[in-house]
Design a protein that fits this description.
about 450 residues, alpha+beta, 6-stranded mixed sheet, 3-stranded antiparallel sheet, about 40% helix, binds zinc ion
Length: about 450
C-alpha cells in the first residue's frame, strides 16, 4: 500500500512559489548603480530565471518523498520478477540462451498488465531493464538483452535480484510504518536534540526530561560499580554478595571495636562504609565483567533496566527531538532571531520535520502575536532557509491563522502560510506551526537506505 501522508494541520490549496519579477526598488537601485541600459538588458533577458523572492515552498514531506523513492524501486523489482517469470515460461530447456527486447515486452499485453507503471512505449521499460542488468539477470547483447544463466542450473540467475527484492520490500514496509507514526522518537531520519534553552515544553515535560536523564545516569553508574562476593556461612548457605561497591580493589582489613578484622566497603547510597568480616570476603569483581553467577544475574538485570531507561529518556526528550537538519536550521535561526522557542509531539504533521513555535513578542488586541516582530520572525525563517548551511538550503511552510500575516508574508515570499484550527487567535492555542526540510533530502542510516552511484536503492 502506498504511504498516504495526510496533512493534519495544513494543506494549502495551491502552493505557489512565484518567480517574482524584480521589485521596483530593486530596479531603481540597479539604475543608479548600473544605469538604464543594464536594467533594460536585464528585463529583456527572458531565458534567465529571475531570483526567487522567497525560499522554496515545502510541498512534499520528507517521509512522502523517501517513501516514493522506495516504492518506485519496489515497483521496478516487481516488474523484474514478472519479466523473469515470463522469460522462464517462454524459454526452452534449461541452458537455452534467452534474449529479450523492450519491444517484445511492450508487445505482450498480458505481461504489460503486470507491470507498474504500465509501459506504453519501449522507453518505459528501460528503468526495469536497467535494474535487471544491475542485478545481473540480463546483460546488454547485440540484439537486445541476453539472460545471464546460472552455471549449475542453466536457469536465469536471479539470486541477487531475489535478495534485494526481499530486503527492499521489507524496508519499505518498515519505513511506511514509522512514517505513519509521525513521531520524532521513532523517526525515518536521523534526529538530534534541540537545546533546552530553545525548546518549548510544559514544566512537566522539562521535569520528566531531567528525571529520565538522572535515572539513566544512575543505571549507567551501577553498571560501573563492583560486587564483593562472600563465602558461604558455616552451614554452607550462601551469603548474599554486597553490591553497589564503588571501589575496584578490596580495602585493607582492620580490627573493629570488638577486635574482629573487618573490611570497610564504600557503597553507593550508604551514608557510611559497610563493614564485612574479612574472613567472609571471597573477592571483588566488576559488575560489567564479573564471572560469578550473582554478578552475571545483576548485570543482566541492569542491562534490561538500561534499555528501559534509554527508552524513557528518548520519550521524555521527544518534545525537543527533531531531524538533525531541523536542529541545525533552528540553531542558525537563533543567530538571527531570539524571540521564539520550539517543540513537538508524536503524530505531528511531518514528524521530526515539524516544529511548533511560540513567540515571546506579546499579543495584540486581535489575540495574535504582535505584527511587527512576527513579520521579523518570518523574515528570519526565510533568510535561514535561503542560506546555504550545512544541509544546504531549506524549504518551509507554516500554519498560522492571522490573515494579516498570511498576506504580508505571502506578498513577500509567495503563499506559504495556511490556516487550521488551534493556531490562534488566543485563547485557541496561539502558536506558529512550521514544516522545514532541506531542498536536497539525504536518506541516512535511520531512513535505512541510500541511493548508490548506479542510482539503485541499497538498504543499510
Ligand atoms: Zn504543529
Amino acid at each position: 500500500m502506498r504511504l498516504h501522508v495526510p496533512e493534519r494541520e495544513s494543506e494549502p490549496a495551491a502552493p505557489a512559489v512565484a518567480a517574482a519579477l524584480p521589485q521596483p526598488h530593486q530596479l531603481m537601485q540597479l539604475q543608479t548603480t548600473a544605469g538604464n541600459q543594464a536594467v533594460t538588458a536585464m528585463l529583456g533577458r527572458s531565458a534567465r530565471p529571475l531570483a526567487r523572492a522567497g525560499a522554496n515552498y515545502a510541498k512534499t514531506s520528507p517521509q512522502a518523498e523517501m517513501s516514493g523513492v522506495l516504492h518506485k524501486e519496489v515497483d521496478l523489482l516487481n516488474n523484474a520478477k514478472a519479466i523473469v517469470a515470463w522469460l522462464r515460461a517462454k524459454r526452452g530447456a534449461p541452458g537455452t540462451a534467452v534474449t529479450v527486447t523492450a519491444g517484445q515486452i511492450v508487445g505482450d499485453a498480458a505481461l504489460v498488465k503486470k507491470l507498474t507503471p504500465k509501459p506504453k512505449e519501449e522507453g518505459d521499460v528501460q528503468p526495469t531493464l536497467d535494474l535487471m542488468v544491475y542485478y545481473g539477470v540480463l546483460k546488454a547483447g547485440s540484439s537486445g538483452f541476453d539472460g545471464v544463466l546460472d552455471k549449475d542450473t542453466g536457469d536465469l540467475d536471479t539470486a541477487r535480484l531475489d535478495a534485494a527484492t526481499g530486503e527492499i520490500t521489507a524496508l519499505t514496509k518498515d519505513f511506511d510504518e514509522r512514517a505513519a507514526k509521525k513521531d520524532s522518537v521513532d523517526p525515518v531520519s536521523m534526529t538530534g536534540l534541540l537545546d533546552q534553552s530553545l525548546a518549548a515544553g510544559a514544566a512537566s515535560e522539562k521535569k520528566e526530561d531531567k528525571a529520565a536523564e538522572q535515572a539513566l545516569a544512575d543505571v549507567e553508574a551501577q553498571l560501573g560499580e563492583h560486587v564483593v562476593l562472600r563465602t558461604p556461612d558455616p552451614k554452607g548457605k550462601a551469603r548474599p554478595a554486597i553490591t553497589r561497591v564503588t571501589v575496584d580493589k578490596l580495602p585493607a582489613a582492620a580490627p573493629n571495636a570488638k577486635g574482629v578484622d573487618v573490611i570497610a566497603l564504600p557503597v553507593a547510597g550508604a551514608a557510611k562504609p559497610v563493614e564485612v568480616a574479612a574472613d567472609e570476603v571471597a573477592g571483588i569483581e566488576a559488575v560489567s565483567s564479573g564471572a560469578s553467577a550473582e554478578t552475571a544475574k545483576l548485570r543482566t538485570a541492569l542491562q534490561a533496566k538500561l534499555e528501559k531507561a534509554k527508552k524513557r529518556v528518548a520519550r521524555a526528550q521527544g518534545y525537543r527531538t527533531f531531524a538533525v537538519e531541523v536542529v541545525e536550521f533552528l540553531e542558525r535561526l537563533r543567530t538571527r532571531n531570539t524571540t521564539w522557542v520550539g517543540g513537538t509531539y508524536p503524530t505531528h504533521d511531518w514528524g521530526e520535520f515539524s516544529v511548533d513555535v511560540f513567540l515571546n513578542v506579546g499579543e495584540d488586541s486581535a489575540g495574535f502575536y504582535k505584527i511587527g516582530p512576527t513579520e521579523t520572525f518570518f523574515d528570519a525563517i526565510d533568510a535561514t532557509a535561503q542560506e546555504d548551511g550545512k544541509w544546504g538550503t531549506f524549504q518551509w511552510r507554516a500554519v498560522y491563522n492571522d490573515d494579516r500575516m498570511i498576506k504580508t508574508i505571502g506578498d513577500k515570499y509567495g503563499k506559504r502560510i495556511s490556516k487550521a484550527p488551534h493556531h490562534g487567535p488566543s485563547p485557541d492555542k496561539l502558536h506558529v506551526h512550521l514544516d522545514l526540510r532541506p531542498d536536497k533530502l539525504q536518506p541516512d542510516a535511520t531512513s535505512g537506505f541510500h541511493i548508490n552511484q548506479s542510482g539503485r536503492v541499497e538498504t543499510l
